[in-house]
Amino acid sequence: xxxxxxxxxxxxxxxxxxxxxxxxxxxxxxxxxxxxxxxxxxxxxxxxxxxxxxxxxxxxxxxxxxxxxxxxxxxxxxxxxxxxxxxxxxxxxxxxxxxxxxxxxxxxxxxxxxxxxxxxxxxxxxxxxxxxxxxxxxxxxxxxxxxxxxxxxxxxxxxxxxxxxxxxxxxxxxxxxxxxxxxxxxxxxxxxxxxxxx
Length: 198
Hints:
Layout: H1 7-22, E1 34-35, E2 38-40, E3 49-51, E4 55-56, E5 81-84, H2 87-97, E6 101-106, E7 112-117, E8 120-126, H3 134-139, E9 144-152, H4 154-162, E10 167-173, E11 179-184, E12 190-197
Parallel strand pairs: 5-8, 9-12
Antiparallel strand pairs: 1-4, 2-3, 6-7, 7-8, 10-11, 11-12
């Protein structure tokens, strides 16, 4: 005997069917909405603006129906730390060439900071000495420092090409369907840019 289905279950089942039909050709899932916030630490006397980590909320909630809230312990962002030998040169490359903006710098002269573009944040830290030694690079094939994703990669690739970026790996379609290219920063950090389509 079939159990009676209430109205809410029918509505949810209908929505699931529509979503499956609408996105049947989608190869991988991406967040639909990005919620960000910022606040001022004026009471502490530092005068620093702190950006809250982006909070990803797909379609207003998660698959199980619950909603991700600001008090949640869910991991909502990862911020790779890239080591650089010349902090000013690195900031210049990320801002002037790759189109990032400076979120903050720390120290006098600056030795630590963050750049961001869209939902991606990269931390830069000055080190004294080479970022990668010859032995490491001789044994590792393309050691990626960070992966940055977008929906359409072609326009970003064109923007970087016009800016004179030298690509470590050209724009290509991978076996698993992603479109990728790799950029090397002045210190040898490899950034993989990935998208669903060119």
